[in-house]
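May I ask for a single protein's sequence together with how it folds?
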Amino acid sequence: MANSKGLTVFIMDDNKQEMANFSEGLYRSHEWYDGLCQCRGKKRGKSVWLERKPKDRFDQIINTAFAIKSDHSSLVQVADALSWVYRRHLELKEQVEAYAGEQAYYQGLVDILEPQREKLGQCPKVPCVKFYQAACHAGWAI
């Protein structure tokens, strides 16, 4: 879509009791998340961040959250595999290899995946953006 950041927030949790609250929270979308999909505009010739309105918050979400065991869904298995590749790649930046060539192997997989991964891009310095930046591993570009 033109002028779309195409953002995805990838969250994995198997807490079935809170799943309904999580799904409702995504649907109702608290303004705390607005910085992730905030747009720029011009005011008096100057570039500024435009405030989001309740009707256009998190407008990129097309599906609701759901919980499923990974062994019941091939797409969740793919997500698990991709997550493991990135996790192990980052771990090997600080740990010793379990076998010779492990670091090169995972680096090769990340080299294949990385060109396809979209990154956060420019966002205002609001609490949600600062939270995600603080929570991510130093070797992971968001």
